[in-house]
Amino acid sequence: MTDNSSIAFVMKEAKEAMPAPITTTGPLAWTRENLFSSPLNTALTILSLIFLAWMVPGLVQWAFVDAVWVAGSIDECRQLSSEGACWAVITARFDQFMFGFYPEDLRWRPILAFVLLCVALLPVLWDAVPARKQLFAFSAVYPLVAFVLLWGDGWVFQSVSSSDFGGFLLTIIIGVTGISFSLPLGILLALGRNSNMPFIKIICVTFIEFIRGVPLITLLFVASTLLNYFLPPGTSFDLILRVLIMVTLFASAYMAEVIRGGLAALNKGQYEAADALGLTYWQSMYLIVLPQALKISIPGIVNTFIGLFKDTTLVSVIGLLDPLGIIQPILADSTWNGLVVELYVFVGLFFFAFCFAMSRYSMYLERKLSTGDRH
User: Fold this and answer.
1) Number of domains into which the chain is organized
2) Where exactly are the transmembrane stretches of this chain (predicted)?
């Protein structure tokens, strides 16, 4: 008689992995872990659901069900619906919110500039873009293309005065310019602050500490008024250009400190390894140190970008009509006098959309660059 217990079983083919239990993965597991993981979390979840059940129906009724989308005045809005939102003011002044006082027959130019901006950002934000190297070349010359499109050159395009700029067009110009130029300038300032050359270090430290110690609104006033006193007589220095310079310098000082924190967080062995490989200073920065420092600094960098984008609203104090500046003449117009909430909600949603997009991209970038070194 053969003892079957002594016969070895050899699997000749791999079996398919069984799915994980629904209590450990998927929506049910996420809900259990994040919403009902403890008695306190359960109580807070229930209270939040009760609050939403009380608030959301009324908000939907005001913002959508009873809302008025087309009307000629606030009186007409109230006649059509006395309880709903009067979004007709946004419909009536939409072009002004978008372009300020940019000539109507030339508005195709800022629209084209925005489309080209999206094209220029593709190779910068995503590495799987076809023909990425060629698009990088376009990204490098895009600032000049955008300037010619928006302001004109007097030969190919009709010139447009900076006083005609306003609304979300002005916000995007200031925000994108400040974000694009503050990062490389901030990197140079951070490296200069860590430099062993006393003269370079003193200049960078003085600049960073001075800019960080002065409110942005003060720098904007300097850009709009005092800066003209230091220019040669008869010199015309465009106001928006002055604002772009000041906003970029302001953001670069904060960016330098964020990146300096990333540099300080690196292990000293990374610098020693670069020296052991015989790399020059700039080679070690480009190939070893900066990629790691920037990866560590991603949350702080994006946080600075978001703060800069929201701070663009401060230009209204020097006479530039950004979205908040556009609201003031609307409120002074007897046709719409009395509408406040709808205007600020619309502007707030615009800023939320852009800032939320930057936040989500930051999270995507962190996941993409994650090397699995979390424990």
Assistant:
1) 1
2) 42-64, 108-128, 135-156, 168-191, 203-227, 239-259, 313-331, 343-361
Containing domain of residue 257, as a range? 93-102+160-369
d(CA 278, CA 287): 12
Domain contains 116: no
Angstrom CA distances, 118 to 123, 124, 136, 176, 226, stand at 10, 10, 12, 11, 36
Residue at 204: amino acid letter: C
Q: Domain holding 216: CATH number?
A: 1.10.3720.10
201 domain residue, yes or no:
yes
Distance (Å, rounded) from C-alpha 208 to C-alpha 206?
Answer: 6
- Give the number of residues written for the chain: 375
Helical segments of 35-93, H only: 39-60, 74-80, 88-92
**Which residues pair with residue 86 across a beta bridge?**
68
> What is the average pLDDT across 354-359?
96
Burial of 175 (0-12, 13-18, 19+ CB in 10 A): buried
DSSP count for the chain of H helices, then E strands: 17, 0
Burial label, 253 (beta-carbon count in 10 A; 0-12, 13-18, 19+): buried
Closest by Cα among 199, 187, 203, 197 to 304: 187
Euclidean distance between CA atoms 107 and 331, whole angstroms = 25
Name beta bridge partners: 68: 86
Residue with tokens 């010359």: 141
Residue 97: what pLDDT? Answer: 96
Q: Which letter does DSSP use for residue 86 in this model? A: B
Report the b/e string of 324-359 with b at 16+ CB within 10 A.
bbbbeebeeeeebeebeebbeebbeebbeebbeeee
8: exposed, middle or buried (Cβ count in 10 Å: 0-12, 13-18, 19+): exposed
Task: Round to whole Å and give the CA distance between 118 and 166.
Answer: 20
| pLDDT tens digits along 92-125 | 999 999 999 999 999 999 999 999 999 999 999 9
- The single residue listed with the structure tokens 């503050």 is 182
Q: Would you say 174 and 315 are in contact if contact means Cβ atoms under 8 Å apart?
A: yes
